[in-house]
Design brief:
Two copies of one chain form a homodimer. Chain A is an alpha/beta fold and 552 residues long. The first copy, chain A, is built from 22 helices and 20 strands. The longest helix of chain A is centred in the N-terminal third of the chain and has 17 residues.
Chain lengths: 552, 552
């Protein structure tokens, strides 16, 4: 005979949920107590809920299955919301377990009482349930898991009142069957194959599961046979890349660039991807990025098997024996001299170990990262799917727990790092093999660009100060050391390379505080010159098209 | 001719909103740009939204009027939710301005798109509005301010789409008239006066505005005339206390204690306070703290003028010339030897300067704070009204900005400090006169108590590790220094007193990392002995009653 928490724990473990990223309070104490009844469940403590939810996101991206989070009422869920948003937008499975007051305590409006379901709906539109009876709890958990693990993956939130958790009479529930997604309909495949055979200019926009090796291989064959261009979503959930894999070109963050990138195509075929739109709206500019006259086709919806759909397309095109273009191995040379953001990216490309997991939340400073690591040994790239900054460090925690035999390299902007800086403590506590590189340019640099892009032209000192985080300057080495993480501060390329080599050699967490100038220059820059300066980081075809467009 | 953001800024300033605690993104850039058009508006940047919202809460508690927050879409609001919850529970006015995508961009489901209103309703049930037209924006802001500043005060959320902000054709709106709350009905006053005259055992439970000087003076007269006991809500929004003021006894956090405290009364009179309930539910224990047979009366509802209601009661009782009992001036001696949490509280009582603002988020370590500072010079006490930890440091930021001529002393648990540790950077940036004292006991100490209180008896190592934040130990001095705040680490009472004296003498932010043993002892403690040990910190009458009850 088990109490609710114990039965829940066994149900989760039976279903393959092995990790719980937690920040518990009193209402979760029975769940915490039940941890010792289930040897298959690992509990990873975070000092802030945004770390727990971001870690669950990063874990699921790499493990291919959900972790649980354990959060304390509406406030704990609120603290975790931003990174759950990133998981939702990345279609990543996460199972939230949110403790609540005992059912009979709720009407009393105690201090921590709030409407949890209303908060949860923001990130869990597909599954929010308050489990009201101990005997239903395990079944509710299975329902939540089915929702989370389906296609598309999603965030499911199970609200667990304290008395349902401590109540006796619960029995564990058998694990749910695996989801069985289907491939695209034959008619759709034939339609897309017809477009590809037509000789028109076609791009495949790959997202979600299409960006893993099997999807890339299939897409590569299609491209080799038909001449189609392979594009990737601007912020992939998980992109496999590096030497030997078919390369894909990511849609640019800046709408100005993305418009040029997409402007050349007559057909855009979506494969587990959304129709691309501008990240933000800008006065007088279109939000849609697909050019007028370009037809959009959906080969594989989010609820379908992208790899199987691509396989069907390969078969329809008779491209099974086509040899994809593959990324040649190549690394940039070792950088020298005063450190810059570009040199950090260069050093990462120069030294990135085989099978690394690269977490990119470097915003402006990471501009050159894609180019510098293109020919590095094979690696996975995790990016900011929902635009809610503060995802990088927590995501690295989760990735490292999912893949303890791989190096995790997290590149983080200084502004973004501060949202969930508490992740460093969990890295130290769990001795995770993560090297965090913080680009310390003392600025919300991207906002300097955005301020101009939105047309807010006359900028005074008060406005400018809202983008400046250099007064006082942040010392990330001290912050890391204060949480038990080995750290150094570097301002030359030589020192950076040395620190990075040391970090890669010595297992366990490291932070490198990379002091760099703001990569986008001073306050008086304009967007056009900046675009021109960014050309070297772009794929050659795009750079050329852009130069033509921007030339006076 | 102004754009929406400029008109909004002028409308806010005209209505007396002088501070905006901000963490902006691209969708808020026009609001940021408009800051320089309004010299009366001060923008205070936070590196995390929970700092901005907690600061707005602390500011309003001390300034007596709302500040604005500036938050970035649903994710920014999510990050700020926990401290908005504390403001809601404390009935504190806060005006959230949450930027959103341009109205025409919303249907495109871009990366940062989410349902902001659903999140906002958790903390702003009384006012959530998306302003859809530039010409309506100023009027919408005034409506939000009316909602926020009314009685009771509340959190109001105005969602501001980017195109409404950048659109032209807006005009500022005249400020709303001040709220005019009314006092209790004469019949209610007469009824309560009859109870007080009856000779029965009566307690007045004071909350909200009744805990400021005017309310305490009136309540003190009533107590002096009738023998009624004066109690305060367990977590007051703002309590004026210290030498010369009528003292009130706070209802205990532990239901076991509160039950004893309230058990002696036949009548409980609520004055801007809620019927007391247990903070959490516990198996087999009642959640209601009012004993059976005790009648509850409401003198003044939250939407009424508590001070005027108490004044009417003073008049009805003819107590205008009664002299309240006043707290005598007295300070504990200077502590010596190895540092403990109790000695930190003693040192604070020994040294607290006149007119200090004390922020108490010390959870278990602050147990002795109330007693040790009871006879200190007059001060204000700000507490954790909603139970969402991470409120203390941000609240200190806001209090210091509201009262630049007063010392702010924030006592914070180590676990709680980590939720919003980024507040230290804003203290350094704004050179705020805050001394933050972190009780570093390497534990979520309160959860060790709660684990037993909820009856989770058999605790294994995995469960225990979820309450232990000592591996690795946090070095708060380094964390503070990493954000530009002067800090020291102390483990003797002598060093602590020296550091505290230095901090009080030198204007600007300081942090003292107070290394103390866990105040509740080892893992094997039981709740009863702990209650007995806590007796010295309780008011004598309660301690005596408790001893009798707990004696074998």
């Amino acid at each position: 005979m088990a109490n609710g928490a114990q039965a829940l724990m066994k149900t989760l473990a039976d279903a393959g949920v092995e990790v719980c990223f937690s920040n518990p309070g009193t209402s979760e104490m029975h769940f915490v107590a039940a941890l010792d009844s289930e040897p298959r469940m690992r509990a990873v403590l975070a000092l802030f809920e945004g770390v727990a939810t971001g870690a669950a996101d990063g874990y699921a991206r790499m493990a291919g299955k959900p972790a649980a989070t354990l959060l304390h009422l509406g406030c704990g869920l609120g603290n975790g919301l931003a990174n759950l948003h990133n998981a939702r937008k990345g279609r990543v499975p996460v199972l939230n377990i949110v403790g609540d007051h005992a059912t009979y305590h709720m009407p009393l409006d105690a201090q921590l009482q709030s409407d949890i379901e209303t908060v949860a709906r923001n990130v869990s539109p597909g599954f929010v349930r308050t489990s009201m009876r101990t005997e239903d709890l395990s079944r509710d958990a299975v329902d939540a898991l089915v929702a989370a693990r389906g296609l598309p993956g999603q965030v499911a939130t199970l609200i667990l009142p304290a008395d349902v958790s401590w109540g006796e009479g619960a029995t564990p529930c058998a694990p749910p069957p695996p989801a069985t997604p289907t491939a695209a309909d034959a008619a759709v495949v034939e339609d897309v194959a017809g477009v590809l055979r037509s000789g028109a200019k076609v791009a495949l926009l790959l997202g979600g599961h299409a960006l893993r090796e099997a999807g890339l291989e299939a897409a590569g064959r299609i491209a080799a046979r038909t001449g189609a261009k392979l594009l990737a979503e601007v912020f992939p959930t998980r992109l496999e890349r590096g030497a030997g894999l078919p390369p894909v070109e990511r849609v640019a963050y800046l709408a100005e660039l993305a418009g040029v990138q997409l402007g050349q195509f007559e057909h855009l075929v979506l494969v587990d991807a959304k129709t691309p739109v501008s990240f933000f709206a800008y006065p007088g500019k279109a939000s849609e990025l697909v050019p007028p006259g370009c037809r959009v086709h959906t080969l594989s919806r989010h609820d379908q098997d992208a790899v199987a759909s691509l396989g069907a397309l390969v078969a329809a095109l008779g491209a099974g024996d086509a040899e994809p273009v593959r990324q040649p191995a190549s690394r940039p040379p070792r950088p020298r001299g005063k450190l810059t953001a570009a040199k950090v990216c260069k050093a990462v490309g120069h030294l990135l170990p085989d099978r690394a997991i690269v977490v990119d939340e470097a915003i402006t400073s990471g501009l050159m990262l894609g180019m510098m690591t293109a020919g590095a040994p094979r690696h996975d790239l995790i990016t900011l799917t929902g635009g809610a900054i503060g995802q990088g460090l927590p995501s690295a925690v989760g990735a490292a727990i999912a893949c303890p035999d791989r190096k995790v390299v997290a590149l983080i902007g200084d502004g973004t790092a501060m949202y969930t800086i508490q992740a460093l403590w969990t890295m130290a506590r769990e001795n995770l093999d993560v090297t965090a590189i913080v680009f310390n340019n003392a600025s919300y640099s991207v906002l300097n660009v955005e301020l101009e892009r939105v047309g807010a032209e006359r900028i005074g000192p008060k406005a400018r100060s809202q983008l400046d985080i250099g007064g006082p300057g942040l010392d990330f080495a001290r912050l890391a050391q204060g949480m038990g993480v080995h750290a150094v501060r570097t301002d030359t390329a030589e020192a950076f390379c040395h620190a990075f080599e040391y970090a890669l050699d010595a297992p366990g967490p490291h932070l490198i505080d990379a002091v760099v100038p703001e990569s986008l220059g001073g306050a008086k820059r304009r967007i056009l010159p900046w675009l021109l300066r960014s050309l070297p980081s772009l794929p050659p075809g795009l750079a050329l098209a852009l130069k033509r467009k921007l030339a006076p």
